[in-house]
């Protein structure tokens, strides 16, 4: 089991059969990246549709990403609750209706949190210091750009 952050930064590698837990923007983009590397990928999402929680994904990006996932035959399990992670894969579903999704690698792409360690370390040491982007909370590049614009306007 690895995080999407470690995977995308090259700190960890994935096997051939991958289950991505989390069907938000990061999970879907990670799944697409993996399938383009020749991996067999399944996305597990507890919500009834992909990219439905959190910040809204622009419609054109969402549609394109869904089309690419379908084109590359990424398997998708919607409304699927993870019951257990085993050596064989991920058990999803509800009690009697559960099924095992076999995988040699499980990628966690849910529950990201902000990292403001640098901001905290520099507080009081730098005259003009602003927290922006994922330092405030995990979001997308559009939010980070908007933060930069707001900081620019403020100074």
Provide keyphrases for this structure.
21% strand, alpha/beta, three-stranded antiparallel beta sheet, 5 helices, 2 domains, 8 strands, 155 residues, FAD/NAD(P)-binding domain
Task: Please describe what this structure looks like.
This protein has 155 residues and is α/β, with parallel strands linked by helices. It has helices at 4-8, 25-36, 59-71, 117-122, 141-154, and strands at 2-3, 17-21, 40-45, 75-78, 82-85, 89-92, 99-102, 105-108. A 5-stranded parallel β-sheet has the order 1-8-2-3-4. Strands 5-6-7 form a 3-stranded antiparallel β-sheet, with no helix packed on it. It starts with a strand and ends with a helix.
């Amino acid at each position: 089991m690895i995080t999407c952050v470690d995977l995308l930064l090259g700190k960890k590698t994935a096997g051939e059969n991958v289950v991505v837990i989390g069907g938000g923007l990061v999970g879907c983009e990670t799944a697409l990246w993996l399938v383009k590397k020749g991996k067999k990928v399944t996305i597990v999402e507890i919500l009834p549709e992909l990219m439905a929680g959190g910040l809204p994904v622009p419609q054109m990006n969402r549609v394109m990403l869904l089309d690419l996932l379908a084109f590359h035959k990424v398997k998708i399990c919607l409304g699927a609750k993870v019951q257990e992670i085993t050596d064989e894969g991920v058990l999803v579903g509800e009690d009697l209706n559960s099924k095992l999704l076999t995988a040699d690698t499980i990628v966690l792409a849910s529950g990201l949190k902000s990292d403001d360690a640098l901001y905290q370390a520099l507080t009081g040491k730098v005259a003009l210091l602003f927290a922006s982007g994922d330092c405030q909370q995990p979001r997308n590049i559009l939010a980070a750009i908007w933060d930069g614009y707001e900081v620019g306007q403020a100074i």
